[in-house]
Amino acid sequence: MRHVFPCPLRWSDMDAFGHVNNVVFLRYLEEARIDFMFRLARQADSESFTGGSVVASHEITYVKPLKHRPEPVTVEMWVTRIGAASLTVAYEVRDRAGEGSTVYVRASTVVVPYDLEKERPRRLTDAERAFLKEYLDDSATGVGAA
To answer: Is the overall model pTM greater than 0.85, yes or no?
Structure first.
């Protein structure tokens, strides 16, 4: 299963070349990830990811320029790896949900659950692991995929 997040484009997202700036795509990914971890995960279990999380790395492939438009883009997001103390999510930023729509970006992010009080990484809880498994698809990495 994939998390589908409609993300509005803002006029300020454009750069001098008239398309969405490359760094803005990281914000789109962040918005989808926040919705996934702080809304969906907490709906599934009120304690999921409440201790915090940090980004360990991003990998992003820009497939096609995106020009500003009034319609939102769709960020599809899924889990590609669940470790003991980290997870990897993949994304596609596209026109609309589903195959056949234009893909602008493919990306992945390694996320580490973090204990804010102790200021150090922590292991995934059983509830977090169960939630993530619903979105697990390790056959499609998101980056560089055709």
So the answer is: yes
